[in-house]
Amino acid sequence: MKLTIPEEELMYEGTVDCQGCGAGLAMRYALKALGKKTFVVIPACCWSIIAGPFPYSALQVPLYHTAFETAAVVSAGIKAALDMKGIDATVMAWAGDGGTFDIGIQALSAVAERNDDIIYVCYDNEAYMNTGIQRSSATPYKAWTTTTPRKYPKARPKKNIDEILVAHDIPYVATASVAYPEDFIRKMKKAKDIKGTRFIHVLAPCPTGWRSLPEHTIKLARLAVQTNIFPLYEVENGKYKINIKPKNPKPVEEYLKLQGRFRHLTGEDIKEIQEATNKKWKKLLRKEEFF
Amino acid sequence: MAKITIRGNMATALGAKLCRPDVVPAYPITPSTLFPEKISEYIADGEMDAEMIRVESEHSAMSACIGASACGARVCTASASQGIALMSEMMFIAAGMRLPIVMAVGNRALSAPINIWCDHQDTISQRDTGWLQFYAEKNQEGLDLMIIAFKVCEDKRVLLPATVGIDAFVLTHTIEAVDVPDQKLVDEFLPKYKPELYLDPSKPMTFGSFGTPEFYQEFKYAQTKAIEKASEVIDEVFAEFKEKFGREYKKITPYKCEDADVIILTMGSMSGTARAAVNKMREEGKKVGCCKLTVYRPFPGKEIVDLTKNARVIAVLDRDISPGFGGALYGEVAAQFINESKHPLITNYIIGLGGRDVLIEDFEEIYDKSIDAVKKGRVEKPVEWIHLNKEVL
Fold first, then answer.
1. Is 0.90 exceeded by the ipTM?
2. Pick from B64, B207, B211: which is nearest to A64 by CB?
3. Which among B57, B59, B66 has CB closest to A77?
4. Taking the CA atoms of chain A, what radius of gyration do you get in angstroms?
């Protein structure tokens, strides 16, 4: 098979991300897709560190670091300035799940409601990893984090951020995975050519926080799709398309058992997660059918 | 120049328009709401070529300002009170990133209890954000200071943001006659903003990466030096403004202070009342003068010392309160004298909070209290509250 991934690298080597970091990989792919004429806005998140301290930079494109809750709106500000200057370029907000699902959701919702012309990428590692693994609203049901100890693991399911964005009637919402780089790059390229707010949600496994092996990052990202825990789909102008439909979905246990954050799960817990996953998947299939 | 009668908010909006900003992100808040309304109208009517971002909060207003300014756009916004408190985080960042954003403020009290009327607590509480702070006495000053602020802030020696404060309702909603400068003259005075460093794909740079202990202090030092330098730049810009538009501004403007025993320091709209009170008291033979501060940051400490060092008492009026201490202006004025071998007595009066009227009688009371301290040779109660309604306490 011929690889379609662009060879150009816009991210330097030698970044300080942890071994097996999905977030580092995700940025590398995203920039390959978007090219040089891209402005990147990073709020407080793992990438504030990965991009390097003053006076270093990990990226070969203009990069602006900003406060935790402001990635979306700082990007909108940049885009407005570019419009006034007559410069055609892509502005990409690049935020973690904390900066997207939690503290940044207000500004993100406002950007989406105005349909400001930016790409918003959430690289989701399912907790506040940069501060040392505290739960976010992206943390899955029953997962351990340092603020949801094993005795009292997270009691609520992961917030469905994608459907929240779909509800804003923006032109493009897509999920992606570092285990499916061609699908991810295709989606980033597609997003680049669309005007308005585009939201890409990429699952980025975190060996440090998931208590998994660095060499399992791709395997886990792939299993998340193959078990239907993190389906790959896109919603273009309200029309759903599921990109990968596993013929025989793998049991969720295969995904869960490779991660120390789920070590305490009982058979009953796993059954519950399996049922919830099946139900959510069915709902998605129905959406594809009807919309 | 054309003379028109307008509200204070309209004056700052008109001032902003004359500066030809590229991007105006804004969120409505009493008493500054007319500002975004006017900007929307100007753009809709084709009188102004700018992008307005109707954000969902003041926090986002300042964030959008930061993004646009980092791209080299001229940017302004307006806010007040709770809005300023909400955007505080981003105000620190705007100054730290050295972005010359100008914000018109309708100076208003902070909750609780909720209050929409005038005091200076909102901007005073942001004094350590690194913003330049101007306070207008009347609508004309509100308009002029917008133009002056851009010119100072965009100066390469400064590159910092500024607030232009006009008192809530007393100015924001009060109609006064205002001279509107010709656009051509403003364009000559304030050419297009051309920063040396901005986000640009042809010269990719990273802005705002984390500063380790090895560098952070130097960033703050450089920022502090810049706001100190602004003091000089403000004088230059005031002089240039006078030459171009005929109106004179000073960091501090004294009135009948030459032989005064008591000098009353004020900021904002009460400065006019202070002059009226001084006139009345002078007729009664009292040796009193007053002085308004137009610039609060950078703090005009040297100018205040030079003006007041031969007075017997300085009465500092604060339309703000730092609970557990006293007025902010008082503390700063007092600090200026700490290394002087002799200095006047310094008294502090908390006045006009939450929109309480400041009256000529109040100034008379302040004079009496201050002279009493002179007679006793000491200040018994340094911080006094004026015009308290004891019945509701």
1. yes
2. B207
3. B66
4. 18
